[in-house]
Write a structure and sequence with these properties.
By secondary structure, the chain is of the alpha/beta class. 39% of the residues lie in helices and 20% in strands. Strands 1, 2, 3, 4, 5, 6, 7, 8 and 9 form a nine-stranded mixed sheet that branches. Helix 6 links the parallel strand 4 and strand 5. Helix 6 crosses helix 8. The longest helix has 22 residues, at 28-49. 41% of the residues are buried.
């Protein structure tokens, strides 16, 4: 299988690894972004799997892959919600930092220094595969999406969060966030590597996954918080669902 690893991108985040859990450090924007994406994930996963969002561990029993997990900012909260979480990242230092924080916080997460295609080749399967703020950093989007989709069990979900490839996104997410406001280190994102929603929708469809309507995310400076929006021109999240009927259809056709 073609590798999705972009060595330069891995090295970039490897150097920043020790900053992951510092809410005032170089990943401060991600700490501010975390609440809205966690709320969205909790809502989508609970609705899809028929869980009570108000429960102490609403995701108990679900096996979830957080690919490109970084230092574990999503993996740990999902594990606290009861999920059996595998956090995977190609940057070795990220995984080392994530493991240390997991041990200190007492939240068990199965962290692995590996890639999506390696996990897929091992036959790993999950109720949900999350690729949050990672697809814009891979070398081959189609191969990466294919690997992620192949690990979604029938009836399961995959959720991607990324930045749209628009002039508006270039102005706000790259020039504004990296060069003017300096929320992120310069060079964190490359415009040509950004991915449009329609491109993810096509990639999902090519792998037997049905894409739901994407939802936008925007920063409200008055509330100093990220909020959901109908505007997907800059940041957006999108859910893909693998139909339950895949197994039934295969059996009816006499396939293994």
């Amino acid at each position: 299988m073609t590798s999705t690893i972009d060595a330069a991108e891995v090295d970039k985040f490897d150097r920043l690894a020790k900053e992951w859990w510092n809410p005032k450090g170089k990943f401060k924007p991600l700490h501010k972004f975390n609440p809205v994406r966690l709320k969205y994930l909790r809502q989508e996963l609970c609705q899809h799997f028929g869980r009570d969002e108000r429960a102490e561990e609403p995701l108990k029993g679900l096996r979830i892959l957080d690919i490109g997990c970084g230092g574990g900012l999503l993996s740990e909260p999902l594990a606290r919600m009861g999920a059996d979480v595998v956090g995977a990242d190609a940057a070795r230092t990220n995984i080392e930092v994530a493991k240390i924080h997991s041990a200190e916080s007492g939240v068990p997460v199965d962290y692995r220094n590996t890639t999506a295609e390696a996990l897929a080749s091992e036959g790993e399967m999950f109720d949900a595969v999350l690729a949050m703020e990672i697809v814009e950093h891979v070398a081959d989007v189609d191969v990466f999406v294919g690997a992620c989709c192949s690990m979604v069990r029938p009836g399961g979900l995959t959720v991607f969060a990324t930045i749209n490839r628009t002039l508006k996104a270039y102005g706000l997410a790259i020039i504004g966030a990296e060069y003017v406001l300096r929320w992120l280190p310069k060079g964190t994102h490359e415009y040509d590597k950004l991915v449009k929603p329609v491109e993810l929708e096509r990639a999902f469809a090519a792998n037997g996954v049905h894409a739901r309507e994407p939802v936008g995310v925007f920063y409200n400076p008055l509330k100093d918080a990220w909020l959901l929006s109908h505007d997907t021109d800059v940041n957006y999240m999108i859910v893909g669902e693998r139909p339950q009927s895949v197994i039934g259809a295969s059996v009816q056709r006499g396939r293994p």
